[in-house]
Design goal:
By secondary structure, the protein is an alpha/beta fold. It folds into 4 domains: 3-139, Response regulator (Rossmann fold), CATH 3.40.50; 151-313, P-loop containing nucleotide triphosphate hydrolases (Rossmann fold, 3-Layer(aba) Sandwich); 317-386, Helicase, Ruva Protein, domain 3 (Orthogonal Bundle), CATH 1.10.8; 411-450. 44% of the residues lie in helices and 12% in strands. It is built from 19 helices and 16 strands. The chain has helices spanning 15-27, 38-47, 64-74, 89-97, 110-129, 131-139, 151-163, 180-189, 211-216, 233-236, 252-264, 290-295, 301-307, 324-339, 348-355, 362-376, 411-426, 430-437, 441-450, and strands at residues 7-11, 31-32, 52-56, 79-84, 102-105, 170-173, 198-202, 217-218, 230-231, 241-245, 266-267, 276-277, 281-286, 310-313, 345-346, 381-382. A hairpin with an 8-residue loop joins strand 11 and strand 12.
């Protein structure tokens, strides 16, 4: 392929970094369109196809995927390489999940950049040759998690399809790794707001001193270090969707600030005398029990009522093992397309062993496993030797049931999980469960009522 026919747009706000990358690419003979703003790249894409964008990447940038999607709506086959100062594995993984083909650490070395460029162009060519692959990548940037035949997932899909076209706020609940952000993105993509931004914020990372600036933005000179005007999440998400992950970790001040803007859509950037209005749909997510937190005074009741208009509970993977083969197929197709690999074949023994694994990391853990096997295993068939080990059986011959406890959980949350898991996975008999838990049946009944864990009608002695 003649480099002169390849158009690459380096994008970086740092002039030195931009010049260094552009020089390397120009020396190789590529057609280079340097840019310092996203608008310049969008304009260039509207004037002609761009093969590759090499973008300076800040892990704190909340709208990277929005930029990628805007470019791909103009130039569908464009690939992306992100370059940042952070060199951790977590940063690289996040960049890939944002839709990039590769992630490079600044300052970018010439061999690493040229290797990444060749990889991206090869992937682009592979996709162009395979219409099914091309359509798959155009359809979604994330693998489909909403596959399978289990009753619990059918219920989730039914609720999701009902609420997606509306503007109602949604609270997505579930353990860590169950796919809450992908569920939020799916709601956005199925809504009337899909042509507008999807902005994701991790509430656990919002300190009390920066909460207003992150959510509502600030004007120049609002505080020390505010050298320019910066829009906040609500401005960026106007007419779109704002996803607030780990909402249970939002500080008290942030809860109050959020409640006020949810009431009327009005907010004021830090340092600005002028209030603004934003039309934003909020989707929040948590792996914590917000009701228990509210009972302890750690989460505002009024905010919980505003967010929890509709709850979308995502089940843990261990509770729906029959969906694992369909998920494996979804991940297999997605990651083979992303990494330019031919689809793998997974043996029946491999799938059977996956069904016996407890999956403490849920769908995220399965996703990572399949991606690793797609990339690292050269053989076309994946056998049982590549499956994670099944936990040793208990003395009764039954695999031990496991559940994860997130650091920082309250005692009430741990107690709720232990009661729920005992009733769901050990025994449905409340008297027997009380004995196992070391409390009286009356105490168990009281805790079920206190924790609002209603007894199921399928429990043999639910009325006792």
């Amino acid at each position: 392929m003649d480099p002169a026919n390849i158009t690459i747009a380096p994008l970086d706000r740092d002039p030195a970094d931009l010049r260094a990358i552009a020089t390397i690419l120009e020396d190789e003979g590529y057609r280079v369109l340097p840019a310092t703003t996203e608008a310049q790249v969008e304009q260039a894409a509207s004037e002609g196809p761009i093969n590759l964008v090499v973008k300076g990447y800040d892990a704190g940038n909340v709208d990277v995927i929005g930029f990628l999607n805007r470019i791909r709506r103009i130039s569908p086959d464009t690939e992306f390489i992100l370059c940042g100062r952070g060199g951790t594995i977590a940063t690289a993984v996040e960049a890939i999940h944002q839709g990039a083909c590769d992630y490079l650490v600044k300052p970018v070395a010439q061999p690493a950049l040229l290797k990444a460029v060749r990889k991206a162009l090869e992937r682009q060519a592979l996709v162009a040759e395979d219409p099914k692959l091309r359509q798959s990548l155009k359809r979604r940037a994330e693998p489909d998690l909403f596959v399978g035949t289990s009753r619990r997932m059918r219920d989730v899909i039914e609720i999701l399809n009902e609420i997606a076209p509306t503007n109602v706020h949604v609270l997505i609940t579930g353990e860590s790794g169950t796919g809450k952000e992908i569920a939020a993105r799916t709601i956005h993509e199925k809504s009337r707001r899909r042509e507008h931004p999807f902005i994701a914020i991790n509430c656990a990372g919002l300190t009390e001193s920066l909460i207003e600036s992150e959510l509502f933005g600030h004007v120049r000179g609002a505080f020390t270090g505010a050298v320019s005007e910066r829009p906040g999440a609500f401005q960026l998400a106007d007419r779109g969707t704002l996803f607030l992950d780990e909402i249970g970790d939002l500080c008290a001040k942030g809860q109050g600030d959020l409640l006020r803007v949810l009431d009327d859509g009005m907010f004021r950037p830090v340092g600005s005398p002028r209030p603004l209005r934003a039309d934003v749909r909020v989707i929040a997510a948590t792996n914590r029990n917000l009701t228990a937190l509210a009972n302890e005074g750690r989460f505002r009741d009024d905010l919980l009522y505003r967010l929890n208009i509709v709850e979308l509970p995502l089940p843990p993977l261990r509770d729906r093992p029959e969906d694992i083969p369909a998920l494996v197929n979804s991940f297999n197709a997605h990651f083979c397309a992303r990494h330019g690999r031919r689809p793998k074949v997974f043996s029946a023994e491999f799938l059977a062993q996956l069904g016996r694994h407890p999956w403490p990391g849920n769908v995220r853990q399965l996703r990572s496993l399949i991606e690793r096997l797609v990339v690292t295993v050269r053989a076309s068939e994946i056998g049982a030797e590549f499956a994670p080990p099944v936990p040793a059986a208990s003395s009764g011959g039954v695999s031990k049931a496991l559940f994860a406890v997130e650091p920082g959980c309250s005692i009430a949350e741990v107690e709720l999980r232990l009661i729920r898991e005992t009733l769901a996975r050990v025994t449905r008999n409340r008297r027997e469960a009380a004995k196992i838990l070391g409390i009286s049946p009356r105490a168990l009944a009281y805790k079920l009522k206190l924790l609002r864990l209603a007894p199921s009608s399928s429990w043999p002695d639910a009325g006792n």
